[in-house]
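Submission checklist for the structure archive. All mandatory fields must be present; incomplete records are returned to the submitter.

[x] Identifier: F-box domain-containing protein
[x] Organism: Calocera viscosa
[x] Residue count: 87
[x] Sequence attached
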Amino acid sequence: MKRPAPASPPPAKRAHTSSSRSSGSQEHQQHQHQRATISHLSDELFLHILQQLDYESLAIAQRVSSHWLRLARDNQVRSSLPSHPAS
């Protein structure tokens, strides 16, 4: 019984060169737009998101970074949690 030929490797990622970055092309602008992350949110909006989490999810979020820990410890977030953690 013959084994199937191994799958070809995925295509290489396109290298960014200084000329392509400085061109201001529409593709580059779209790429920059896609790079927006949760770190770009205001603290007020992020606090609102944290208020929607349960105990376990909030505990996980606190471990992401010192900034997230500081926000997760905010009284506004803590007061939104149920009085007793779920077992």
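[x] Structure attached
Curator remark: Residues 38-87 form a domain with the Monooxygenase fold (CATH 1.20.1280). The chain has a mean pLDDT of 74.
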